[in-house]
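The instructor's notes for this session suggest beginning with a concrete chain rather than abstract definitions. Hand out the sequence below and ask the class to guess, before any prediction is shown, which regions might be ordered.
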Amino acid sequence: MDDELDPADENVNSVLAQESSELFEILCSQSQTTLMSLWETTPPDAGRLGSAAASALVPEHISAMLEHFRRSRAAECCSFLQRVCLLCDNVPMHLESKLMSVAGNPFSVRQNPTLSETGQRSPAEEQLVKRPRIDHWEQHVKAAAGFLQRRWERLSAGRLRDLQPEKVWVSLRTTSRTRERADQTPGSAERGSRTPEPDVDYGSLESRLTLETFLQGCAGKVTVLCGPAGSGKTLLTSCLGHQCASGLGPIPSSYLFVLLEFRQLNLLSSPLSLSELLFQHYLPPQNGDSQAKKAVMDYLLSNPEQSCWVLDGYDEFHRKLSRRDEPLDPETPVPAADLVSGLVSRQLLPGSTVLLTCRVRDVSDLDGLADKVGQLLPWDHQEIREYVDSFFGVKDGSPGSEAADLLFSSRHLLAMSSLPALCNICCVFLQHLLQEKRRKASTNPLETRDKGAQNPDVRQEEDGHGDSSRGQRTDPNRAETSSSSAEVPPTRTQLYLAVVSAFLSRRPHEGGGEDPTNTSTFPHSVQLCGLSRLAWQGLEKSSILFLKNEVPPKVLELSVRTGLFSQVEVRGQDGKLLSAYSFTHLTLQEFLAALRIMTSNDVSDAQLKKRFSLKTRWTTRSDQKTVFTDSLYLYVCGLASSRCTQAVVQVARASGLKGVQSWVQKRQDLVLNLLKALCHNNTLTGPKVLQLCHYVQESQNQQLAHQVVSVRPTLELRNFWLLPNDIHALAFVANSAGDDGVGLDFGSCSMELECLDILTTCRNIHHLSFHSRKYGDKFAGKLSTIVPEFTTLRKLQFCGSSLTAAGAASLASGLQNCPSISELNFSDNNLQDEGIQHIAEIFTKLPNLTSVTLGRNNTSLKAVGCLVDKMSSCLNIQRVHADGVKELTVTFCQGSDINSHKVNPEPAVSLLNQKWTNSEMEKLVQSLANCPALSVLNLSGGYWDEQTLKTLTEFVPKFSVSEKIILNGSCSSVEGLVVLTALLSERLSLFELNVRLQSPVLVCVVFPGGREKPAAETSKKLCLSCCDLQPSDLDRVLRSLGSSPGLTDLDLSCNRLGDKGLKKLLDILPRLKKLREVHVGDNWLSMDGAVLLAAALCSNNNLTETHISEGGKNLVTLRFSPETSDDKLQIKLFRITNSSLLPSDVTRICNKLLQSRSYLELEFSHCSFSEETIENLLRVLPKMLLLRRLNVSCSISSTADALMLISCLTDGRRVSSVELSPQSESFITFDGVQAEQVNCRFTGFCFKGDDIVLMNRLLQILQHNQQLSYLDLSEDQLDDDGVKRLVDSLPKLHISSYMNLSKNRLSQRGLLDVVGTLCTCASVSEVDVSLGEEQRCLVWFGRNRGAGQTLRVSKSSLEHHHLLRLAEILLKCPTLTRLQLQNNGLQSDWIQNFVKVLNRGQRGRSFSVEESWIRAEEAVDLVSRCLEVNRSIHAIRIQQNTLHVTLKNPEPTSSRREAERPAQFMATSLSLVDCSAHGTQLAALKNVLLQSPSLTQLDFSDNTLGPDGAEFLSLLLPLLPNLTTFSVATKERSESVVEELAPVFLQSTSIQCLNLSGHLISGAAAQSLARLLPRLRSLNLSRCVWSAEGGRRLVEALKLCRRLEDLCLDAASQLDRNSWVCLAQAVRNITSVRSLRLNEIVQTSGTSEVDIVLDLLAGLEGLTQMRQIELDGWRMAEKGTEQLIAVLPNWKELRKISLSKNLISDPSGEKLLDALRSCGLLEELHLSSNRLGDASAARMALTLPSLTHLTVLDISENQIGKEGSASLSEAITSLKNLKKIHLTSVGTSELSDVVASLAHCALIQDVGLGWNNCGDDVALQLTKLLPFCLQLTRIDLECNSVSVSGVEALEGAMKSCPALQLIRLWRNRVSVREAQSFSLRERRLNFSSTIM
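After discussion, reveal the predicted structure:
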């Protein structure tokens, strides 16, 4: 800056003359207001040019003004220059200083005499007073320059190289949108032409330029310079300050250069103003004058553009900068972060120059704030070598060259050296390494030579290799360098161990001379332990600065001396300088912190598990700010390696841990387990997967590496920069995949080409994918050179990139050397036609190719034609697919399949949405004609003209197409349709032609699969729906079609043919002899068309069915039978559905149908019928003698209309069935002759109680008919009154089966009216009424003839008077023998009164009452009271909660003798079974029992007798002299009961039948029972438990039982060998036995047990009176069965035989069935769980017809097949008395014939078909069965394959079988929701696993 000038020393006018040219330029840029203020100071006679005051000043005025003051007096000139300096903007500092110096002080009294005299100033002078002095500003700028110079001298001291900004390289960055969500991998691009490049996180790098060039033009802007830690940002900012102070560089020296470090700002915790920040924490004024501070601040605020603010190290700042939208007051104290945010947001000092440095990841915080962003580029190889040479001093004999070669041979050292700070660290390491090497060599040269001889080769790193081409020079001592490279650690962690060791050993005389590469020992271990603790504490506090008082003195001294610490000057809150220190590099601190984690308890296992995580490279604004490089856990993983164990143990030992070896091992195992968990996490994004690869690489654990690729076979990497080290990490992991291979998917990842060289170290790569616009021809060229090295590569994707034909040619040249490649994807590039040709040329050179994707490549039809032509030369092309410009794919079949005998599918060509012209079509069809046989040709998507379409059709006969040709969108007119229709007349094996002209236009030509059949033998279908065809068009189509003798199906629906077109069609139909079906729906037809169809049905013998829906608008179908026959047995169907029919329409249609010569079915379902329509229909029905069925489903809605239609019962005798319902199926069937009985179902209508006319009309119609099979009036809303009128008329009705009145809203009054029919109608045999949810009301006629009448009433909520009324009705019914009352809410007193009333009537009847409360004490009390009120009770029994009472038949005795009898009960049987009665409660029966001398049977089974009950019975039994039968069976084993009662049994000599089932029989009890047995006639010891001795005594006693008729020893298996022998002898002796039950007595299957079975069977030979025998579970097999067969002919009286679980196979089964022929009275046959097959089933067909009394057949769980099923159905046909059949899991699902045969079993009640996988066919067969089996109550279809349709059919059929109570449907093909819906509609359908 120029020295100050004094006005006395130099003429002010001369200065103005010198600077007038520059002043002129400055004044021209000022505002008019400023110029007018200056112009007003000129005197009036100053030679003004015109009236400038009234208009804008022009340059001429400015020149005149300058010229005037140049010639004026010095005082005037000074005043003018002062005003210029104070009023004008943008005056350069040097010029302003010069002018102000020469013009003098404007506040001087000497220069302002007017002010001193008057004390007043003019407005211009007032403005001058407010301006600060510039002297203070200049002084502060000078002081700042000196401060910057001193700072630079301190920082540059000892530097090896001069820092030159013109040689520092920067790359411009384009900022991008910040991600809203972290770790979200972008999805694939939308389909289209070429996709745009997706957003990336860090922006993209652009041009490369020097830092000096980058900073040009930064004045007044916010500039961001980013780079990694250690890249030299802080040093560069100091260098810029030095240059500014020296008048050099991009920042003018006149600017105030303010250099602030964020690490300094971190220490400022209190708010402060801009002045405090500037003067207290940057540079205070020299004299501390407050006026100077104010003057500087005033000038700064007025001229902010003259300041430059350099903010260094934003990555170290603890807070994030925020955008400010409001100006910031510089005088208001605010946090330091707000001041910085104000500067960057231009809300503080707007116009100032701001330069901010940070790391790359922090750039996102400045999104929208920075005007320019640049990234410092790392050092290249040349710069690294220059630094190494400078460090070592290159000269003869220096180690610099050797060190450089060693550095370049290690990828870790080379990667670190790209950053200046780390390069210095590497040099320190190399220096020490070489010194130690030379020291050892000088100490023991022989050893060194031996070592070199033993290791002559350079050891390659485990995860890659060094790049020898990076700036290395040939060295004569290369072998020595190679030997040294083996000593460089292979991982970063191990390298840092060596680096720390090298630093600590930099003073050999103090620290020793340890080998820096030896990771097992450290010098200064104690101090290292303290240093690592300090590093960890700083990491915890996010601090990299350590004040002097925070560091232990010894640690501080060592760290500074060795260079691990560097000193930093900072100012405290009070502005005083503080001594602080930081690690040489952040990674050193992170490494030492990791060492602390692995060597101390500062971090517990739980904390480590919580903190251990993966870091992503994707950044968001919400990310937590950190100063560190996220390498902490990378080093933790590295220290978990076994190679670092010894070093970790040494440091851990210095920290004072106990059991250090095991502790370290445990900590290392924990880290490896954490890594293992991450390896198994398959939700990691690409950046985290890459970070995981780095972690695993550091651990050097191959097993973990394998787990990474086993969980994710393809590693997907998206949107971040990839470095060579990243590729090395990927290689380490990928190479662990082995033969499984791994895929690498790179999406929008920037990388240098050298990364591809490293990529070749990845072995077993099977998939490579590159998709980004960053990848172009240069990248592809490099890739082509390395692709052949991937010998296992199967899939290559290079899509969404910038590839052109040149790049495609390069890739093709490389790919032809990749024989294993199978998939190629080059879509979304710019290959064009030429590029496609390059790719197509290598098809034949890649034998394993399966697919090539080439879409979105800016191609034309030429490229498509090229691929089609390629099919003729490349025979393994399977498909060529193109869709406009979006898709272009070629698929191939494997070459091995071509050469093998395997039949491969034929190729296909799919060229969609192409714009074909006639000439292009000619080229295409010629190519297609040369193609091998095609399966499908798809040319859809182009609207062609007729000529183009004709060109194609002319070539179709030359094509070899086996399946179909698709031409969707190709035809748009009837003319084109006619062209296509002509294909059917050609001699082609054409199968089907489908054409649709309405949008979407569809055209499909279908072939039958080959050309080997003549056209005459091939059926043809023609579909011309939705083509807008009119009658005139139909003529043209039919002419084009010709005779077409093979046409079988014709679809002309959805056209505009009308009735006229239909008539034309019907006229031509007879010529089409093979026609099977025609569709002409939605053709504007009227009912005249329906009449035409009715006439055609009668006249055309082949036409068998016509179906018209919605009056022809929806569906019109004609079906034909190929057989031409006049046989009347052929039934023709005429259907009209969902239509509105007028009376005349019905008449016309029916009159036409009268001409039919075949049987007819007429359907008018879902139609609207008026009364007149029904009348017309009834008038014509008698004339339709060939009519067999009239279907009017959902067409009759009113009751009156239904009654009108049902009147046909009176008008004609041909009616066999009438079923009418408004909401379901309704039909009338007719017979050819008069029907004997009529089925009548009239449900769902409304007969209100007051509508007498309708009810009377119904009764009149029903009474007129001779005989009704059944009458169903359910759901007719009859109510009580309607039912009353009906039952009153019941004697006049002739019903043979049943009447159903269910769901008619009956009350108890209606119930009693229905019950009354038992008295009023002699033909009523049974009444079943329930007023519960099912609302059941059934009246049966003629059922169980001769067995009396039956009444069932359940869930009807009867009151007391209802019950009494019911009793009165019963007294009037002498034939009513059975009464069942279930869950009617009856009370005990009501039941007693009911029983009492029945005492007045005739006896000989039985009744039962079931109520939930009949249990325990209430049950005992009820029995006692019933006996008291009715002494005529013959038997009374309570089982569970049901009371059973039988009244004694009256004896033929006189009334006098009756009166003379004492008051005694007539009961002979009393039972309390399983009713929870306790022994103490039985005492209430004592009096009753003692007054029953006739009592012969007493049963207290399955209760809880206990000692009290046993004692009571022991006292009671001797008092019952006539007791013959006693039962106390139990479910709970008890020893006391039998032991107490056994002696009593001996005293009760009348007992002949004894049941002790389930008891524990002691030895004493067995001894007593043994004495009792010889006089017994019936004995039941099933499930009893006894001792071996007791069992022998009992069995021995059985040998003496000559009178025994019934013996049951089920499950009595506690017999020893002697007992079995005795039992066999006993069986031989009991010749009187009639029932023998020995189920499950043989538990094992050994040789001795087989002999026992044979002995027992042999003992059966003399038992000729056998009626029932049960031998389940004997496993008698063939020998035992033969033994049994020999006995069977003697059992002529046999009624039941059960042989389940006996291993009976077919040969034995056939013989057994033959032997059963002699048992002509057999009623039950149980053969379940055996091995019977088809042969046994065939024998059943021969044997079972002779067993005419058979009622139960059980052959479940056998192995019957399809043939056996047919035989079984034949056998069942003859079983007229069969009531129960169980076929569960019989081995076949084909049981339809078996079910059909049950129609011959009218008495069938129970059918079991579970677990057979039966389908809907069985269900449908059951629906046909139900109307014939009216006594059927249960069907089991559990665990089958019945679908919803099958269940729907069963639901509908259940209406015809009202007795059916349950159909089991658990585990069928019905969803839970559908099952619930079915259950709500029909409660008898059960889908539960249990029966509810």
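Then share the key points. The first helix runs from residue 12 to 28. DSSP finds 71 helices and 61 strands in the chain.
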